[in-house]
Structures are given as structure tokens and as C-alpha cells.
Amino acid sequence: MSRAPEGLETLDFSVLELCCPINVDDISNRWLNSYVPLPGQKTKDYPANVTAFIYRILKSYATATARGRGVPPFVHPSQIMATSTRLPLSNCLSLVRICERPLPGSESVAADVLQREMSCLYDQHQTYDDMALLAAFQAYLIYCMVLFFRLSRGPNPFLRQAMTNLQDLACSSSRRGLMCIAERRNARPNWESWIVAEAKRRTLFAMYLFDSMLLSQDGLPTFLGTELQGLPAPASKFLWRAQTRNEWEREYNTHLADWAEGGLYIDELWPIPTGLDERGLLERRNRVDQWLEDIDEFGTMLYAVTSCTHGG
Fold first, then answer.
1. For 236, which DSSP code?
2. pTM of this prediction?
3. pLDDT, tens digit, for every residue of 61-72?
4. How many domains does the structure of the chain reveal?
5. Is residue 38 part of a domain?
6. Structural domain span for residue 76
7. Which are the contacts of 76, defined by CB distance < 8 A and separation ≥ 6?
8. Is there a domain that residue 301 lies in?
9. If 0-12 CB within 10 Å is exposed, 13-18 middle and 19+ buried, where does residue 188 land?
10. Please, what's the largest Cα pairwise distance for the chain?
């Protein structure tokens, strides 16, 4: 969990150099897949212990946020600085505190408060700029997790509709860009653009885990998020936690030197492709090993889920 940083320099998010390398419409349509599977989709069968692991980790995100002990590791430390916190996220971090110790019988009142804010946030999301839209996407995911883990008392029809809205928000935010233009050229982007792209990708990965867990609990099939193929895997802890531009640029230069052929992609953590020869398999495992050397707790969690589910 991230805490408000001390001494992090002020950043300017007014000019972001981003691009979107995937078909984001498949993100907003993802909720349909469990009911009307598309040709070629690959099922993702989580073992029961993996579903339980995802449940406990995501529950810890919701609980720590509700207790004011930090923010989930898909929210960048710079986003919770007083000078850069966007209204959807700052409102969320304040509102969820009512769920820290709800009095017996008051859970429905707290849920109503969160649900009204979620409806308002979703209704207004088309008016947001890129940073506010990212904050709205993150806030909505946090609200969903808090509703489920802190206030849920049985089936919640609102939550299923909320997940559809969440995927729509994810699509809208992703459409504004999921990678830095420089990243695609294996060059160093500006810090602000990288922060936004990395935070979006982490939030997207967390949403997919949460959605898959809910579907598994409901006995519905889950499918591999092939629409995310080609997105970078979570970045190193040194890049994510850097507190100054100089520190971040130094770490990114090291990253470029270490990954001359490009960093690890999320699909390199998925099932081993049919027909991959021994040399290709060894190269893939070496790349994953190199990635594991520097990742933070979010990357470690993601690797644990994919490794236990897909092997490799």
C-alpha cells in the first residue's frame, strides 16, 4: 500500500504523450463474454486457492484504504499529493472512511452513500480530462471493492451493474492512452506521461482480477484478457517509487540498458504459446526472471496469480 509521499516534487500533467496500442472496445464489452462467448476466447480456470488468494489481496486493498492507511498499489504516490489529487479520487479516499467501522445496521446507509457517489461519478465521466478520468476509474474500482469486501451482505444487484459501468470507465480512460509514445520506441518518456500510463495499466490489471474473482464466485466462466496483449507488465519498484525527476530518469536509463530489446509484456505471463520451441521457452523464462528481480508487491501478486494459474 502506498502512503502520501514526503518531498515528491510537483509535476505537470497538462501535456501527456500517450497512445493506445489495443482495441479498448473489447474492455467495455468484457462483461458480455461470460454470457455470450466470442469465437476464439480462451477460458481461464482459476484453482480455488488462487481465487482465495486474489480475494484476500484485494480485500486488503479495500480495508487499508477504508482505514486511511494508504492507497492501493495501482494509485501512484504523486496522485495523492495535495497539489495533484483529482476530485474523484480525493472524494473517494474521504468517503470510504465511513466504512472503517460501520455500526451494526448502518451498512446499508454507508452503501447508499457510496452508490450515490458512484452514480454521480459515472454520469459525469465524459466531461473529465485525462487525469480526472483516470482518477474516476481508480475511484470507481475502489468503491466497488469497498462495497464488496466491507459492506456486502449477500447478493448485490447494484454491484453487477457497477462492474459494467467500471469496464466502461476503463475503456474511456484507456482510449486516452495506455502507453507512452516513447515507450513504444524503447526510449525514455517524460515522467508525467509514464506515471499516467503505468497507473492506468495497473488499475486495469487490478480490475480484471477483481472481475474474474466475482465471476468465479458466481460460478460463471472467466476468460483470458487477450485484449490486453501487448501492454507492458507492471514496472519495477524503483521506477514506481522514485520521488524526484532525476531519480526516475536515472532508473529509467538503467531500465533501458537492462531491457535493450524492450521490457516484459503482460502476455509473457500467460500460458506458454503452442509451438514455442525450447530456445524460445528459455528466453521467455529468462525475461520473466529478470523482471522478477525488481518488481514491487503488485507485480509479485500478479506473478503469483499467473504462475499458479498458467504455469510457465
1. B
2. 0.94
3. 999 999 999 999
4. 1
5. yes
6. 25-227
7. 2, 195, 198, 199, 240
8. no
9. middle
10. 60
